Protein backbone atom coordinates (compact mmCIF):
# COMPACT_ATOMS: atom_id res chain seq x y z
CA UNK A 1 0.00 0.00 0.00
CA UNK A 2 2.70 2.59 0.81
CA UNK A 3 4.35 1.69 -2.53
CA UNK A 4 1.10 2.36 -4.40
CA UNK A 5 0.65 5.69 -2.66
CA UNK A 6 4.23 6.67 -3.48
CA UNK A 7 3.64 5.73 -7.12
CA UNK A 8 0.48 7.87 -7.23
CA UNK A 9 2.35 10.79 -5.65
CA UNK A 10 4.81 10.88 -8.52
CA UNK A 11 3.74 12.79 -11.65
CA UNK A 12 1.57 10.57 -13.85
CA UNK A 13 3.12 9.98 -17.31
CA UNK A 14 1.29 11.71 -20.15
CA UNK A 15 0.50 8.40 -21.84
CA UNK A 16 -1.48 7.39 -18.74
CA UNK A 17 -3.10 10.71 -17.79
CA UNK A 18 -3.78 11.83 -21.39
CA UNK A 19 -6.09 8.89 -22.24
CA UNK A 20 -7.81 9.28 -18.84
CA UNK A 21 -8.48 12.96 -19.63
CA UNK A 22 -9.89 11.90 -23.02
CA UNK A 23 -12.25 9.43 -21.34
CA UNK A 24 -13.96 12.34 -19.58
CA UNK A 25 -15.84 13.12 -22.82
CA UNK A 26 -17.68 9.76 -23.16
CA UNK A 27 -18.00 9.53 -19.35
CA UNK A 28 -20.05 12.74 -19.11
CA UNK A 29 -22.11 11.75 -22.15
CA UNK A 30 -22.87 8.42 -20.55
CA UNK A 31 -23.60 9.90 -17.11
CA UNK A 32 -26.21 12.34 -18.36
CA UNK A 33 -25.73 13.38 -21.99
CA UNK A 34 -23.52 16.30 -20.95
CA UNK A 35 -20.91 17.96 -23.17
CA UNK A 36 -17.64 18.36 -21.29
CA UNK A 37 -16.63 22.01 -20.89
CA UNK A 38 -15.35 23.94 -17.89
CA UNK A 39 -15.42 27.64 -18.86
CA UNK A 40 -19.24 27.68 -18.95
CA UNK A 41 -19.02 27.65 -15.16
CA UNK A 42 -17.67 31.20 -15.27
CA UNK A 43 -20.87 32.16 -17.11
CA UNK A 44 -23.06 30.30 -14.61
CA UNK A 45 -21.18 31.94 -11.71
CA UNK A 46 -21.83 35.39 -13.23
CA UNK A 47 -25.52 34.50 -13.52
CA UNK A 48 -25.60 33.47 -9.85
CA UNK A 49 -23.57 36.40 -8.49
CA UNK A 50 -24.71 39.43 -10.52
CA UNK A 51 -27.65 41.51 -9.30
CA UNK A 52 -30.50 41.47 -11.77
CA UNK A 53 -30.20 45.04 -13.06
CA UNK A 54 -26.48 44.63 -13.86
CA UNK A 55 -27.06 41.42 -15.77
CA UNK A 56 -26.37 41.42 -19.53
CA UNK A 57 -28.50 39.03 -21.62
CA UNK A 58 -25.71 36.44 -21.67
CA UNK A 59 -26.26 35.72 -17.98
CA UNK A 60 -30.06 35.51 -18.08
CA UNK A 61 -29.91 31.84 -19.00
CA UNK A 62 -31.33 28.99 -16.94
CA UNK A 63 -28.14 28.18 -15.00
CA UNK A 64 -30.03 25.79 -12.71
CA UNK A 65 -30.44 23.44 -15.67
CA UNK A 66 -26.62 23.40 -15.82
CA UNK A 67 -26.09 22.71 -12.14
CA UNK A 68 -24.29 19.47 -13.02
CA UNK A 69 -21.44 21.62 -14.35
CA UNK A 70 -21.18 23.68 -11.16
CA UNK A 71 -20.96 20.38 -9.25
CA UNK A 72 -18.22 19.27 -11.64
CA UNK A 73 -16.35 22.52 -10.82
CA UNK A 74 -16.81 21.88 -7.10
CA UNK A 75 -15.33 18.43 -7.73
CA UNK A 76 -12.36 20.05 -9.46
CA UNK A 77 -11.65 22.07 -6.33
CA UNK A 78 -11.90 18.96 -4.10
CA UNK A 79 -9.72 16.95 -6.49
CA UNK A 80 -7.14 19.73 -6.41
CA UNK A 81 -7.09 19.59 -2.61
CA UNK A 82 -6.69 15.80 -2.68
CA UNK A 83 -3.85 16.02 -5.21
CA UNK A 84 -2.09 18.72 -3.18
CA UNK A 85 -2.31 16.83 0.13
CA UNK A 86 -2.50 13.03 0.04
CA UNK A 87 -1.03 12.78 -3.48
CA UNK A 88 1.41 15.66 -3.13
CA UNK A 89 4.66 15.32 -5.08
CA UNK A 90 7.56 16.88 -3.14
CA UNK A 91 9.81 17.17 -6.22
CA UNK A 92 9.77 20.11 -8.66
CA UNK A 93 8.35 19.61 -12.19
CA UNK A 94 10.91 17.59 -14.20
CA UNK A 95 11.24 20.10 -17.02
CA UNK A 96 13.47 19.66 -20.06
CA UNK A 97 16.92 21.24 -19.81
CA UNK A 98 16.01 23.72 -22.53
CA UNK A 99 12.97 24.92 -20.58
CA UNK A 100 14.95 25.28 -17.33
CA UNK A 101 17.48 27.39 -19.22
CA UNK A 102 14.84 29.59 -20.94
CA UNK A 103 13.06 30.25 -17.66
CA UNK A 104 16.42 30.87 -15.97
CA UNK A 105 17.22 33.69 -18.39
CA UNK A 106 13.87 35.23 -17.33
CA UNK A 107 14.95 34.97 -13.69
CA UNK A 108 12.55 32.13 -12.83
CA UNK A 109 13.83 29.18 -10.80
CA UNK A 110 11.98 25.86 -10.84
CA UNK A 111 10.76 25.13 -7.31
CA UNK A 112 8.59 22.31 -5.91
CA UNK A 113 4.89 22.73 -6.66
CA UNK A 114 3.19 23.77 -9.87
CA UNK A 115 3.56 27.56 -9.65
CA UNK A 116 6.72 29.70 -9.39
CA UNK A 117 7.20 32.48 -6.82
CA UNK A 118 6.48 34.95 -9.64
CA UNK A 119 2.82 33.86 -9.49
CA UNK A 120 2.41 33.34 -5.74
CA UNK A 121 4.43 36.12 -4.09
CA UNK A 122 1.75 38.77 -3.59
CA UNK A 123 4.23 41.31 -2.21
CA UNK A 124 5.41 41.90 -5.80
CA UNK A 125 3.21 44.26 -7.82
CA UNK A 126 4.16 42.36 -11.00
CA UNK A 127 2.53 39.22 -9.57
CA UNK A 128 -0.79 41.04 -9.23
CA UNK A 129 -0.48 42.37 -12.77
CA UNK A 130 0.23 38.93 -14.15
CA UNK A 131 -2.63 37.21 -12.29
CA UNK A 132 -5.21 39.91 -13.03
CA UNK A 133 -4.37 40.38 -16.72
CA UNK A 134 -4.25 36.64 -17.29
CA UNK A 135 -7.61 36.09 -15.59
CA UNK A 136 -9.30 38.91 -17.51
CA UNK A 137 -8.08 37.57 -20.86
CA UNK A 138 -9.04 33.98 -20.00
CA UNK A 139 -12.54 35.02 -18.90
CA UNK A 140 -13.22 37.29 -21.87
CA UNK A 141 -11.60 35.02 -24.46
CA UNK A 142 -13.22 31.74 -23.43
CA UNK A 143 -16.70 33.25 -23.53
CA UNK A 144 -16.03 34.98 -26.87
CA UNK A 145 -14.70 31.71 -28.30
CA UNK A 146 -17.53 29.74 -26.65
CA UNK A 147 -15.23 27.35 -24.83
CA UNK A 148 -11.77 26.65 -23.47
CA UNK A 149 -9.26 23.82 -23.64
CA UNK A 150 -11.82 21.29 -22.38
CA UNK A 151 -14.78 22.38 -24.51
CA UNK A 152 -12.89 22.98 -27.76
CA UNK A 153 -9.50 21.22 -27.67
CA UNK A 154 -10.76 18.05 -25.96
CA UNK A 155 -14.53 17.77 -26.60
CA UNK A 156 -14.64 19.67 -29.91
CA UNK A 157 -11.67 17.91 -31.50
CA UNK A 158 -12.88 14.53 -30.18
CA UNK A 159 -16.12 15.09 -32.08
CA UNK A 160 -14.38 16.46 -35.20
CA UNK A 161 -15.86 19.97 -35.07
CA UNK A 162 -14.22 22.47 -37.40
CA UNK A 163 -14.89 25.55 -35.21
CA UNK A 164 -13.07 23.80 -32.35
CA UNK A 165 -10.04 23.19 -34.56
CA UNK A 166 -9.98 26.90 -35.46
CA UNK A 167 -10.35 27.80 -31.77
CA UNK A 168 -7.60 25.39 -30.67
CA UNK A 169 -5.13 26.71 -33.26
CA UNK A 170 -5.96 30.24 -32.06
CA UNK A 171 -5.45 29.22 -28.38
CA UNK A 172 -1.95 28.07 -29.25
CA UNK A 173 -1.18 31.10 -31.45
CA UNK A 174 -2.15 33.40 -28.57
CA UNK A 175 -0.28 31.32 -26.01
CA UNK A 176 2.94 31.18 -28.03
CA UNK A 177 2.80 34.95 -28.51
CA UNK A 178 2.19 35.78 -24.87
CA UNK A 179 4.57 33.22 -23.33
CA UNK A 180 7.43 34.43 -25.51
CA UNK A 181 6.74 38.15 -25.90
CA UNK A 182 4.28 39.35 -23.23
CA UNK A 183 5.35 37.31 -20.19
CA UNK A 184 9.00 38.56 -20.15
CA UNK A 185 7.65 42.10 -19.57
CA UNK A 186 6.32 40.96 -16.18
CA UNK A 187 9.43 39.07 -15.12
CA UNK A 188 12.57 41.06 -15.78
CA UNK B 1 -33.77 36.27 -12.38
CA UNK B 2 -35.34 34.84 -15.49
CA UNK B 3 -38.51 33.00 -14.71
CA UNK B 4 -38.89 29.72 -16.52
CA UNK B 5 -42.33 28.43 -17.36
CA UNK B 6 -44.13 27.45 -14.19
CA UNK B 7 -43.09 23.97 -13.23
CA UNK B 8 -44.12 21.96 -10.26
CA UNK B 9 -41.46 20.57 -7.95
CA UNK B 10 -42.16 17.07 -9.18
CA UNK B 11 -41.25 17.85 -12.80
CA UNK B 12 -38.03 19.55 -11.70
CA UNK B 13 -37.01 16.43 -9.83
CA UNK B 14 -38.07 14.21 -12.67
CA UNK B 15 -35.97 16.14 -15.17
CA UNK B 16 -32.92 15.26 -13.14
CA UNK B 17 -31.78 18.79 -12.36
CA UNK B 18 -32.10 18.17 -8.65
CA UNK B 19 -28.67 18.58 -7.07
CA UNK B 20 -28.75 15.30 -5.16
CA UNK B 21 -29.21 13.37 -8.38
CA UNK B 22 -26.13 15.00 -9.89
CA UNK B 23 -23.55 13.58 -7.47
CA UNK B 24 -21.79 11.50 -10.17
CA UNK B 25 -20.69 14.78 -11.75
CA UNK B 26 -19.07 15.83 -8.46
CA UNK B 27 -17.06 12.60 -8.47
CA UNK B 28 -16.18 13.04 -12.17
CA UNK B 29 -14.97 16.58 -11.39
CA UNK B 30 -12.93 15.31 -8.45
CA UNK B 31 -11.20 12.72 -10.63
CA UNK B 32 -10.58 15.32 -13.32
CA UNK B 33 -9.11 17.74 -10.78
CA UNK B 34 -6.67 15.07 -9.59
CA UNK B 35 -5.81 14.35 -13.26
CA UNK B 36 -5.10 18.02 -14.02
CA UNK B 37 -2.62 18.23 -11.15
CA UNK B 38 -0.97 14.80 -11.49
CA UNK B 39 -0.62 15.08 -15.29
CA UNK B 40 1.04 18.49 -14.69
CA UNK B 41 -1.41 20.15 -17.12
CA UNK B 42 -1.90 22.65 -14.27
CA UNK B 43 1.85 23.28 -13.99
CA UNK B 44 2.85 26.78 -15.08
CA UNK B 45 6.27 25.37 -15.89
CA UNK B 46 4.84 22.75 -18.28
CA UNK B 47 2.71 25.34 -20.07
CA UNK B 48 5.75 27.59 -20.59
CA UNK B 49 7.71 24.60 -21.86
CA UNK B 50 4.87 23.75 -24.26
CA UNK B 51 4.61 27.27 -25.69
CA UNK B 52 8.39 27.22 -26.31
CA UNK B 53 8.31 23.76 -27.96
CA UNK B 54 10.88 22.43 -25.49
CA UNK B 55 9.29 19.09 -24.56
CA UNK B 56 6.67 16.76 -25.93
CA UNK B 57 5.03 16.20 -22.52
CA UNK B 58 2.02 18.50 -23.08
CA UNK B 59 1.69 17.60 -26.76
CA UNK B 60 1.66 13.90 -25.87
CA UNK B 61 -0.87 14.62 -23.12
CA UNK B 62 -3.29 16.63 -25.28
CA UNK B 63 -2.75 14.41 -28.33
CA UNK B 64 -3.44 11.16 -26.48
CA UNK B 65 -6.45 12.76 -24.75
CA UNK B 66 -7.98 13.82 -28.08
CA UNK B 67 -7.23 10.47 -29.74
CA UNK B 68 -8.80 8.55 -26.83
CA UNK B 69 -11.77 10.92 -26.73
CA UNK B 70 -12.27 10.60 -30.49
CA UNK B 71 -12.21 6.79 -30.52
CA UNK B 72 -14.34 6.24 -27.39
CA UNK B 73 -16.88 8.96 -28.22
CA UNK B 74 -17.30 7.66 -31.77
CA UNK B 75 -17.83 4.12 -30.44
CA UNK B 76 -20.29 5.38 -27.85
CA UNK B 77 -22.33 7.32 -30.41
CA UNK B 78 -22.41 4.34 -32.78
CA UNK B 79 -23.33 1.87 -30.04
CA UNK B 80 -26.83 3.31 -29.75
CA UNK B 81 -26.48 3.34 -25.96
CA UNK B 82 -28.52 5.87 -24.06
CA UNK B 83 -27.25 8.06 -21.25
CA UNK B 84 -28.00 6.88 -17.72
CA UNK B 85 -30.82 9.45 -17.51
CA UNK B 86 -32.45 7.88 -20.56
CA UNK B 87 -31.58 10.63 -23.04
CA UNK B 88 -30.26 9.85 -26.52
CA UNK B 89 -26.58 10.76 -26.60
CA UNK B 90 -26.02 13.93 -28.56
CA UNK B 91 -23.08 16.34 -28.79
CA UNK B 92 -24.26 19.86 -29.60
CA UNK B 93 -22.60 21.36 -32.69
CA UNK B 94 -20.37 24.42 -32.25
CA UNK B 95 -21.78 27.04 -34.57
CA UNK B 96 -21.49 30.67 -35.49
CA UNK B 97 -19.09 32.82 -37.49
CA UNK B 98 -15.40 31.87 -37.67
CA UNK B 99 -14.38 35.27 -36.33
CA UNK B 100 -15.38 34.51 -32.76
CA UNK B 101 -13.28 31.35 -32.66
CA UNK B 102 -10.21 33.15 -34.02
CA UNK B 103 -10.47 36.34 -31.94
CA UNK B 104 -11.83 34.72 -28.78
CA UNK B 105 -9.27 31.94 -29.13
CA UNK B 106 -6.40 34.41 -29.49
CA UNK B 107 -7.53 36.41 -26.45
CA UNK B 108 -7.87 33.28 -24.29
CA UNK B 109 -4.48 32.06 -25.56
CA UNK B 110 -2.82 35.34 -24.55
CA UNK B 111 -4.12 34.84 -21.02
CA UNK B 112 -3.19 31.14 -20.94
CA UNK B 113 0.42 31.91 -21.88
CA UNK B 114 0.82 34.34 -18.95
CA UNK B 115 -0.36 32.59 -15.77
CA UNK B 116 -0.39 29.18 -17.48
CA UNK B 117 -3.97 28.44 -16.48
CA UNK B 118 -6.97 27.51 -18.52
CA UNK B 119 -10.27 27.43 -16.56
CA UNK B 120 -9.82 23.84 -15.25
CA UNK B 121 -6.57 24.55 -13.37
CA UNK B 122 -8.04 27.80 -12.00
CA UNK B 123 -10.46 25.63 -10.00
CA UNK B 124 -8.04 22.74 -9.36
CA UNK B 125 -5.32 25.02 -7.93
CA UNK B 126 -7.66 26.90 -5.55
CA UNK B 127 -7.04 24.44 -2.74
CA UNK B 128 -3.25 24.68 -2.83
CA UNK B 129 -2.85 28.40 -3.70
CA UNK B 130 -5.99 30.06 -2.35
CA UNK B 131 -5.12 33.77 -2.53
CA UNK B 132 -3.37 33.93 -5.94
CA UNK B 133 -6.08 31.71 -7.46
CA UNK B 134 -8.89 33.82 -5.98
CA UNK B 135 -7.32 36.81 -7.77
CA UNK B 136 -7.24 34.91 -11.09
CA UNK B 137 -10.77 33.55 -10.60
CA UNK B 138 -12.17 36.99 -9.74
CA UNK B 139 -10.43 38.51 -12.78
CA UNK B 140 -11.76 35.68 -14.98
CA UNK B 141 -15.30 36.36 -13.73
CA UNK B 142 -14.85 40.08 -14.48
CA UNK B 143 -13.55 39.15 -17.94
CA UNK B 144 -16.55 36.89 -18.54
CA UNK B 145 -18.91 39.65 -17.39
CA UNK B 146 -17.11 42.16 -19.65
CA UNK B 147 -17.70 39.88 -22.62
CA UNK B 148 -21.37 39.66 -21.71
CA UNK B 149 -21.54 43.46 -21.54
CA UNK B 150 -20.10 44.01 -25.04
CA UNK B 151 -21.40 40.84 -26.70
CA UNK B 152 -24.12 42.63 -28.67
CA UNK B 153 -21.48 44.78 -30.37
CA UNK B 154 -19.18 41.87 -31.22
CA UNK B 155 -21.69 39.42 -32.63
CA UNK B 156 -25.16 40.93 -32.81
CA UNK B 157 -27.07 37.75 -33.63
CA UNK B 158 -25.28 34.94 -31.76
CA UNK B 159 -26.58 33.53 -28.48
Automatic annotation (TrEMBL), chain A:
It is a multi-pass membrane protein. GO terms for cellular component: plasma membrane. Belongs to the TsuA/YedE (TC 9.B.102) family. It comes from the Bacteria. Keywords: Cell inner membrane, Cell membrane, Membrane, Transmembrane, Transmembrane helix, Transport. This is YeeE/YedE family protein. The keyword Cell membrane applies. It is found in: Cell inner membrane. InterPro entries: Sulf_transp_TsuA/YedE. The chain crosses the membrane at residues 12-31, 68-87, 93-114, 126-145, 165-187. The lineage of its organism: Bacteria, Thermotogati, Deinococcota, Deinococci, Deinococcales.
UniProtKB/TrEMBL annotation, chain B:
The keyword NADP does not apply. InterPro entries: DUF6691. It comes from the Bacteria. Keywords: Membrane, Transmembrane, Transmembrane helix. The keyword ATP-binding does not apply. It holds the Pfam family DUF6691. The chain crosses the membrane at residues 20-37, 58-76, 101-123, 130-150. This is Transporter.
Amino acid sequence: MPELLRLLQEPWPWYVSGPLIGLTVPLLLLLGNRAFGISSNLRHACAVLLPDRLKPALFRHDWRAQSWNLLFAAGLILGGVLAATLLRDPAPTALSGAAVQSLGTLGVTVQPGLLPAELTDLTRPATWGLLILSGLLVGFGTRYAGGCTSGHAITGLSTLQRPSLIATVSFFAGGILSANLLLPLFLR
Amino acid sequence: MISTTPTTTTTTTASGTHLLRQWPFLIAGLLFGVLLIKSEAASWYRIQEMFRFQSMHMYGLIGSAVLTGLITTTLLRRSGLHALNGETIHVPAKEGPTRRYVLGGLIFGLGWGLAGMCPGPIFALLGSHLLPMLIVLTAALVGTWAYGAVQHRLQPRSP
